[in-house]
Amino acid sequence: MGLRALSATALALLALATVGAASSAAARTWLSPVDLSANWRGPVAWTPQVAIDSEGDAVAVWTLENGGKGIVQSASRPAGGAWSTPVDLDTVRSYSQPCPQVAVDSDGNAVAVWVGTEGIRSARRRAGSAWSTPVTISARWRTASDPQVAIDSKGNALVVWTRHGRIESASRRAARAWSAPVDIAAAGPFPPRVAIDSKGDAVVVWTLEDGGVQSASRPAGGAWSAPVTLSATASRLANPQVAVDSKGDAVAIWTPEDGGVQSASRLAGGAWSAPVTLSATAQRLTNPQVAVDPKGDAVAVWSLFDSPNGFTVKSAQRLAGGAWSAPVSLPAAGDFSDPHARLSIDSQGDAVAVWRGPDGIQSARRPAGGAWSTAVSLFGRGHDPEVAVNPRGDAVAVWLRGGEYGVVLRAASYEAAARLQRARAYAAPAAHPEGTTVLVRLRCRGHGSCRGAVKLYFEHELIAKRHFALAAHRSRTLGVKLNRRGRELVHNTHRHRLKLELSGRGVKNRTEVLKGL
Fold first, then answer.
1. Does the structure show a pLDDT above 90 at 113?
2. Quick check: 514 and 10 in contact, CB under 8 A?
3. The dihedral of CA 65, 68, 70, 76: what is its sign?
4. What is the largest CA-CA distance in the chain?
């Protein structure tokens, strides 16, 4: 009996990967930035946004103003590869504000939205494919603005925007058409912000004209709840932001007009907590940002104007269900332009912040529960940075830089330590020159190399072993030949259950049943 006749239980495949032996953590730095938008006299790039999927593939969108018209453009980059040539998604009136936004699911399928001539427009892009023809998802020929898009792990997307003093929403199941717009509530002076969890449950927050912050929630595929008030203060509140963890627990943050930073939280399906103050200063605060990891641990950043020293970027953190820490300063003081700090977080709780500092575009990293690193410079001059981080810690940042030939968009990437990301096992053909062999397909992603061993077990008995070394962004098929004892066990046993178990430094432990052997 050959391996092709095996049906199901005791043969276990254990792939042990020791990762990053060829590169140290010190070598894992931001890569050199590159220009994304065209660099010729006249065009002006603005409003960039970026997203990155679980594989490290990135997509960016922005607006290019050229020759009296606005063009919504996009470029993409496979993990470890180069950015593509920009493509045009839509053309809009030059005096409008397209404000393009983009989101990607775990498989790299992307959804972009923007303000078009006819209303809120959207296009989608399957991983590795071209963008679809744009469609209008809001009421046509009626003023709409400030779209925000979120997408869950299955590719179901949700967009919110404002129109005629109201907040509206549309949703779309993966690869299907957009729903008709629905009304959520009265809009305020700042755009609504939306977040969605892995199951597709969503929460949106916004401010009221007469002061206060409100929120509504929606289960996957369901209807929006009635608005609830998070803060009823008469003071005008600004810049609301919201983030959710994998369970749907939410954290919101905002800044009162008279100074300070406040936050409220909510367990999935529960009520919002009373607001708490993260910073009680009366000094000018701008651009609060909040990010939450899958466990519910949160980190926040905001910009504080500390005269006469200019702006400083502040940060606080909070364990799931706990209290916020005292604010700490990131090294960004001394610049009298708003740092425009931005924040993202990976599945382990490691955070990345970018901002405009006195030395140009800067970045710092914070390990889960730890302190912020020393800032590093990504580029000597620039403004309006944005950053995205995927679950494994790969990051991509985009920003604008001015120069002799207008304003262009730049991007830089940070790749996490190399790790064995994929392993597939299948039977070798009967005529394979190595005899009774299991073929194991390995793929290494990240920065550095993957080194380790593939071991085959029958129950707890080792029956094959082979070492490997694999450069990042490379794949390899190993022929793992069974030893004599392994061949005897396989040929003399009629009932087997095949399992693939991955473990080791840099490899997420998992066990799965092998099929097709």
1. yes
2. no
3. negative
4. 82
